[in-house]
Amino acid sequence: MIKRINLALQGGGAHGAYTWGVLDRLLDDERLEVEAISGTSAGAMNAAVFADGMGRGGRAEAKRSLEMFWQNISKASQYGPLQPSAFDRATTGWNLDHSAAFVAFDMLTRMLSPYQFNPMNYNPLRQVLENSVDFKRLEGCRAVKLFISASNVKTGKVRVFKSGEITPDVLLASACLPFLFQAVTIDGEPYWDGGYMGNPAIFPLIYGAETPDVLIVQVNPLGCDRVPTTASDIMNRLNELSFNSSLMREMRAIAFVTDLIDDGKLDSNQYKRVNVHWIEAEKQMRGLGVSSKLNARMDFLLHLKAIGREVADCWIRNHFDAIGHRSTIDVKEMFL
Questions:
Q1: CA 157 – CA 138 distance, rounded (Å)
Q2: Cβ count within 10 A of residue 31
Q3: Which residue did the predictor score with more confidence, 130 or 79?
């Protein structure tokens, strides 16, 4: 029996390779069909590559396209200065905290804006995207509905770009960290990373897709083991809180509406009851600092992919039967 789901993919730089692993495992199961994907930042790129591959050649091509995309990411960074030092590899595994280049880069971005240190607005991701996705073909692709979020710098509102509107600029806008890149202008409006206002946005999946089942692939940990005390740890935790805040607000709204529907205070024919599912790897991801999001070494990306496949496999085994019937997390307990 084929079951349809919608996917909500968070951003997280190189940590998006974990989502690659999740998608790779989901594609192995022919009982699952993806109707729509809402993605932000790295999640947006995974979504576009997934949809382009599905439209070109189905599951096998989607798997191949995702692998090629992450290989291209690694190749684009292999000669760059942001590499883990020998001490990093020996002590922290995948972080870049003791890399002289990362320390210098971190200080530079605190003192100068990208308009100053990168006046030509060079972004290596543009070439990677253009080599990985046929945007002309993607424009007409209807194999999977896409919803890509970016944050309007001036209005503070989230803009959701839909299938037929996805361009390299849209994906770069969704992944535009303002300390690293100049705002991306689309239709005369400047955009920053979509994670500030929707990481990822859930409402497009509620109103723009038929299936009520939304599977959220969490990249950024919700909790932490201890109070951060160093400057880098504090910044890392602030980033996690910031990029999870919009998602948590939407989850609270979903819980509120679900209660009203269950209590008969809202007409279920007019309001959609959402089945929420969740894939996470909090234990594995908590040990990764913010600097590791810039680590695109292939061994690290494959490590993250393996984690993604493992947790996705566990989720399928434990929760497949619930798809189409009920949520597999207690939204109120998690978010209220």
A1: 26
A2: 10
A3: 130
Q: At 91, is the pLDDT very low, low, confident or very high (cuts 50, 70, 90)?
A: low
For residue 146, the surrounding DSSP H or E stretch is strand 145-152
Query: Residue 239, exposed/middle/buried by CB under 10 A (0-12, 13-18, 19+)?
Result: middle
Whole-number pLDDT of residue 75: 94
User: At residue 161, what is the residue type?
Assistant: F
Length of the chain: 336
How far apart are alpha carbons 106 and 110 in whole angstroms? 6
pTM, two decimals, is: 0.94
pLDDT of residue 160: 98
d(CA 194, CA 174): 5
Contacts (Cβ under 8 Å, ≥6 apart) of 160:
38, 147, 148, 149, 198, 201, 204
Tokens of 306: 């393996």
Both structure tokens of 48: 């576009």
How confident is residue 90, by pLDDT bands cut at 50, 70 and 90?
Answer: low
Helices marked H in the chain — which ranges?
Answer: 16-28, 42-77, 86-91, 100-111, 114-117, 124-132, 135-139, 168-174, 203-208, 231-262, 282-285, 298-319, 331-335
